[in-house]
Each structure stands twice: as C-alpha cells, then as structure tokens.
Write a structure and sequence with these properties.
The protein is built from three helices and five strands, in the order βααββββα. With about 110 residues, the protein is of the alpha+beta class. The chain is globular, with a radius of gyration of 13 Å.
C-alpha cells in the first residue's frame, strides 16, 4: 500500500465547518448537524488514502480539486505530492460560494 497523505486545514476551512454546523443546527437540530459534520469528516479523511479522486477545477484555481460530501457539501482542496499532503482550502454547503472563498485563500 502506498504512503498515506497528511491532512492540513486552512484556518478558513475550520471556520467553514463551524458555520456549516451552526447553519444545520439552527434549522434541523444538533443531532443532524453532528451527523452531517461526521459525514464530511469521513469523506475528508478518505483523502489520506486517495488524494486524487476528486474532480480537478483548474478554472477556479490551478491544482484545485472539489469533492462532494454529505449531500449538500463540497470539499475544496489541493494536493502536494512532494510533501504527501492534502490542504483543505474551503468547505461549501447548500450552494454557498465556495469558489470565491478558495480564491481568497490562495
């Protein structure tokens, strides 16, 4: 088996996750918010074994990849093969403008 990649998070991506949790909690409750965040986390952790499985979105930012998760979420990230790491740049939810956030976080 090949070497696992390390996950890194842009500080803004951590804020995105908190905001997604709050949004879901406000309209659907804590239990569902926890479940959605767990689903996003599961997909994100899967990138340690399969970092290139998502669709490239070079038109937004060179090297950017975007992967759907938890029905309404998208995980936006780049892969550094030399460093064996995946950088989570942004996590969008329910039609939020993740592309604008990615551009701000280069």
């Amino acid at each position: 088996m090949s070497e696992r990649y390390r996950l890194r998070y842009h500080p803004g991506a951590s804020d995105d996750l908190f905001n997604i949790f709050t949004l879901i909690e406000d309209y659907a409750g804590t239990q569902i918010a926890n479940r959605k965040l767990s689903e996003i986390e599961r997909v994100t952790k899967g990138l340690t074994d399969f970092p290139h499985k998502a669709s490239p979105r070079d038109e937004v930012q060179p090297g950017l990849r975007v992967l759907p998760a938890a029905e309404k979420a998208v995980i936006c990230f780049t892969v550094d093969d030399a460093d064996k790491s995946v950088l989570i740049l942004a996590v969008g939810y329910a039609g939020s403008d993740w592309a604008a956030r990615v551009k701000e976080r280069r």
